[in-house]
Design goal:
496 residues; 12 strands; Bacterial polysaccharide co-polymerase-like; 3 domains; single chain; 8-stranded mixed β-sheet; Rossmann fold; disordered C terminus; alpha/beta; 4-stranded antiparallel β-sheet
Length: 496
């Protein structure tokens, strides 16, 4: 009860400022939909590359998976590298900048492993498809060129070895033919051919081994060159990828909902005006609250009668006074006092409304619908005091309703009357502050006046802040005798 504001929750914020949430979401959705007509159309085309890693599967699944991930990331980085984009720009007609082109090319790996998607964006659908295909083909060509460059030194070395071994074989075979053609004995020819034949056999074995290595190298190079290939060329898109009205509106609405929720929470956090009867009851510290946000019905006196009875319940048996206190100086009490008096007149017949000097002027008589013999009188305390009414005619009324400003601002000090032991607090919806209602209730509690009930007036029923009007002097003698005589009549006269 002593907190500056009542408990704030997200539910309270949504119930009170729900219009702010859906209003901002609707506005953001409309702005997003309008943005689809101002942005330039952009088309996207995608070419798909596939990785073939059959040579690594024989070494184990884990090794094949690691190799696949490594090659995928390597080719993704290579697709947007400057050498590849420069070759693509060279194949394009017109001006093409690799730096600008790098922002229009995106290489990603889809959900399926072993694939790479090359996506190109352009203002024309055909240009987008051409760019995607050019980048994919250049990536394949670049991979083959790198493989060829990687095996070129070993291939050159093996070819040189084959050439050298082949020359040695030819020289050895020539020596063998010369010995065979020499007119010598068979024993001498056999002795001369033996080392040459052994050398020729060794050279032939070396040649076969080197040739096998060269063939294996070519097989590996061909396999590595076939690691990356175009799986699906890019197709010409039929509709632009941007702007997308569905995506734009969806993002706008979601963003608007989030922004609206944040603004609603901020508005609820910094709201300091009473919005409903529950908040007024919490601020005033009472459980009986009459919420008149829909306006007061002159014929509905039942709720006012209930408040009157609740205010007098549990008091002294001769208690005939109700203190009607405004939560702030700007809250109106005249209409509430009139309705309380009309309800009370159904039982008490004669009701006196004592208005504060700041709330009204003169002594007036109200017309009631309670039947014959019922009277409601409205007077200011200074008028009653000058006529001696307070000391002489108080017993002539069954119930007295004192209208007062907050205790610290009430010049009539109605709260200081001994009979005023209970009060009804009056506040205005979305106008009276929490601190004002809580301060007024606390001030009454400090002087021994309990707030038995509260009334929440509809918004717009507050009076403008202005200085009090001058009090009109009632006719008659100033010593109080004339006023006393006129008030002593059964049918009270109207004094202005």
């Amino acid at each position: 009860m002593h907190a500056d504001r009542p408990l704030r929750t997200v539910g309270h914020a949504l119930r009170r400022f729900h219009w702010l949430v859906w209003g901002i979401a609707l506005l953001a959705g409309m702005l997003a939909f309008g943005a689809t007509f101002t942005r330039h159309r952009t088309y996207e085309a995608t070419a798909t590359l596939t990785l073939y890693e059959a040579n690594n599967t024989s070494q184990g699944f884990d090794l094949a998976l690691q190799s696949d991930q490594y090659l995928t990331q390597r080719f993704i980085a290579l697709a947007t590298s400057r050498p590849v984009l420069e070759q693509v720009c060279a194949a394009q007609r017109g001006s093409c900048d690799p730096v600008t082109l790098s922002h229009r090319i995106h290489a990603t790996t889809p959900t399926a492993t072993g694939q790479i998607s090359i996506t190109a964006s352009a203002s024309s659908p055909s240009v987008a498809a051409t760019l995607a295909d050019d980048v994919a083909n250049e990536l394949v060509r670049r991979n083959r060129a790198e493989v060829a460059a990687a095996v070129s030194p070993e291939r050159t070395y093996l070819q040189q070895q084959l050439t050298s071994i082949e020359s040695s074989i030819n020289a050895t075979q020539e020596q063998i033919r010369q010995i065979q053609n020499t007119p010598r004995t068979d024993a001498w020819v056999s002795n001369g051919l033996a080392p040459l034949l052994s050398r020729l056999s060794l050279l032939q074995a070396q040649y076969a081994n080197t040739y096998t290595k060269l063939q294996d190298l070519d097989a590996v190079a061909a396999q590595r060159s076939a690691t990356l290939s175009v799986y699906q060329p890019a197709s010409v898109p039929s509709k632009p990828a941007d702007p997308d009205p569905v995506r734009y509106v969806g993002v706008g609405v979601v963003g608007g909902l989030i922004a609206g929720l944040l603004l609603a929470l901020l508005a609820e956090r910094f709201r300091d005006r009473i919005g409903d009867g529950a908040e007024l009851g919490e601020a005033a510290g009472c459980s009986i609250v009459l919420d008149l946000r829909g306006g007061a019905d002159p014929s509905a006196v039942g709720p006012y009668g209930f408040l009157t009875r609740a205010s007098l319940q549990g008091r002294q048996r001769d208690a005939r006074t109700i203190l009607l206190v405004a939560a702030s100086a700007a809250d109106r009490l005249d209409r509430v006092a009139e309705m309380l008096a009309r309800a009370a007149a159904q039982v008490h017949h004669r009701v006196l409304i004592v208005r504060s000097s700041e709330l009204g002027d003169g002594l007036n008589r109200l017309d009631t619908s309670a039947g014959h013999g019922t009277t409601v009188v409205v007077a200011r305390p200074d008028v009653i005091g000058r006529n001696g009414y307070a000391s002489q005619n108080h017993d002539r009324f069954d119930l007295t309703i004192h209208c007062a400003l907050p205790p610290m601002a009430d010049p009539s000090m109605a709260w200081a009357k001994p009979a005023a032991c209970s009060a009804i607090l009056v506040a205005t919806r979305r106008a009276t502050r929490f601190s004002e209602a809580r301060r007024t209730a606390e001030q009454l509690r400090q002087v021994g006046v309990e707030t038995a009930a509260a009334i929440l007036l509809p918004r717009g029923s507050r009076k403008p802040r202005h200085s009090a009007k001058a009090v009109a002097e009632p006719p008659g003698d100033t010593d109080g005798t004339a006023g006393t005589d006129s008030l002593a009549a059964d049918d009270v006269a109207v004094t202005s």
